Amino acid sequence: MIAPEADLAGRSSFVTRMLAWAQTAWKGIIVFLPYSWLLIFFLLPFFIVAKISIAEPIIASPPFSSLIEWSEDGILTIRLIFDNFSYIFEDDLYSSTYLNSIKISSISTLLCLLIGYPMAYGIVRSSPTTKNLLLLAIILPFWTSFLLRVYAWMGLLSDVGTINNFLIWLGVIETPIRMLYTEFAVYIGIVYTYLPFMVLPLYANMEKLDGSLNEAAADLGARPIKVFFTITLPLTIPGMVAGSLLVFIPATGEYVIPDLLGGGNVLMIGRLLYNEFNANHDWPVSAAVAIILLVLLVVPMMIYQHYQSKENEGA
Amino acid sequence: MGFAFLYVPMLLLIIYSFNKSKLVPVWGGFSTRWYTELFQSQEVWDALTLSLKIGVVNATFATLLGTFAGLAMARFGRFKGRTLFSGMISAPLVMPEVITGLSLLMLFITLREFIGWPDQRGFTTITIAHITFSLAYVAVIIQSRLIGMGQDLEEAAMDLGAKPFRVLFDITLPRLAPGMIAGWLLAFTLSLDDLVIASFVTGPGANTLPILIFSRIRLGLRPDINALATIIIVTVAIGVIIAGYIMFRQQKRYNESIKMAAKTGE
Questions:
Q1: Is B120 on the interface with A (CB under 8 A)?
Q2: Which among A42, A156, A305 is the nearest to B9, CB-wise?
Q3: Which in A16, A25, A60, A147 has the greatest CB count within 10 A?
Q4: What pLDDT shows up at residue B107?
């Protein structure tokens, strides 16, 4: 075997120097590249949105006033305009939309938990082969288009859709039940598309549990129900928290589901933001809407981040 | 029950794609006319090509940057700004898409104001936006793989005198390869799937496949979209099954080679 030094000597001096440089600097490069990427394309944009949210809308490109201006006599003026925020707070449409978004995503999260918990529990307790198959079945929808999964429900829920047709054919109902473009459809859509995000963290959590605790409790005479409520349930709280946040945070700002399944009848902030932005091009107000949404979600996000880093260090 | 809930809607979608009738929910007999119509549409082909191009470039860059980020998080101990770094990696996973999309658009507009770039929005801006959130997903996969792998082999190599750079290339990266492949595939899928962020940062004329699909289904059910959906679902299912099978086999071979090594060692 040739020593790396002998190997290097054979190449041109430039390559040698480059390699020597790389051998000392590589750690720095590995951190620097993704770090600077995220700083520029993830963190910096939030500051820009914050800046625009306190600017004034003007008819120009870009359509907002600048904060710092040199007036003619050379005095630096800084103009902060909080009109956009007071406009949002005073407008009933915005406040009720924020509240409704939080209501819908909270209830959806709870539904995901109620459906997902037994699913994860069932997967953990099945035989290794079935377990792998069931896990694959949970992950598979992840890889298929989110948009198409929502679209599939349009076909099921519409007035002339599969469910209504089937019920009419059975003779249960005579006229179709209105399901598409209602809040009910939005709940279905969110629970359907976000369910895997609940099941997977719960599964990961339950998988790590020590089965001997359950046995010990059973040996000491505890009934299965008691074992579940006093041992399994408290030990799976981290999984429930992680899963719930993974559903709650993105669902609050969801756009596609309320737009396709809720139509104009369901108020959700992601949809309002997107459609208002595209229709009015009022940048400062849209920026302010986004900032308020971000502030609402910052606490859940920090809990999630805390959980995530604890998870990685604990392993 | 839960599983039926996940799969029945997609199954019905597939069945109705073979419906002869123009009205989606009314069964008019078996037909493949929507598939023929689909393949003849230039718009669909253009959107598909754009989406695939963005997907490949995005997945490649995201895998590279995400692997770096994962390595830094799992192997470099404490470094300056690590807390901010880990926050920036986990936040994109839960950030509502409308916020990411809006903020990136505002960034691109501001940048054009100051440095004249990007002069138009489309392929480049969508790709940059996708790399930003995809790299976070890849970083999480790589980080958890690295933690799961442990550092025994790396430490052994260092004890035997290998330089850290060599250890990275000869030991860490080859063992990470399956994780990087999984990360690439995930980044590719995420990119192909994204509607909201792409709609914000795209420019005139640059329609990705999801943007095209969305503009059509917003107005109601469309039989040609059912056909397109069927093609996508079937392709993805086949891909996942093949990938799963390959990984399963590799895992088996790896386990066997460890067993063999243990035997020869005895």
A1: no
A2: A156
A3: A147
A4: 93
**By percentage, how much of chain A surpasses pLDDT 90?**
41
Q: What is the pLDDT of residue A248?
A: 96
Domain match, B133 and B248 both = no
Q: What is the dihedral of CA A247, A253, A259, A265, to 10 degrees?
A: 100
Clarify whether residues A221 and A298 are in a common domain: yes
B153-183 pLDDT tens trace: 888 888 888 888 888 888 889 889 989 998 9
B73 within 8 A of B237, measured Cβ to Cβ = no
Q: Tell me the chain A residues in contact with residue B236 when contact means C-beta distances shorter than 8 Å.
A: 143-145
Q: Which CATH number goes with the domain that contains A161? A: 1.10.3720.10
Summarize the confidence of residues B41-48 as an average pLDDT. 91
Find the domain containing A131 and state its range: 84-314
CB within 8 Å: A152 and B12: yes
pLDDT in tens, A124-133: 988 888 888 8
Size of interface A-B (CB pairs under 8 A): 234
Check the CA dihedral A168-A171-A174-A180 and report its sign.
Answer: negative
Among A36, A67, A112, A144, the residue to mutate for chain B (most B Cβ within 10 A) = A144
Segment holding A191, helix H or strand E: helix A183-207
Contact B131, B61 (CB under 8 A): yes
B237: containing domain: 221-254
**Following DSSP, what letter does each residue of B136-193 receive, concatenated?**
HHHHHHHHHHHHHH-SHHHHHHHHTT--HHHHIIIIIHHHHHHHHHHHHHHHHHHHHH
Which DSSP category does A78 fall into? E
Residues A102 and A143 in one domain: yes
Give the ipTM of the model, two decimals please.
0.87
B130 pLDDT tier (thresholds 50, 70, 90): very high
Q: Kindly tell me if the per-residue pLDDT of B61 is higher than 90.
A: yes
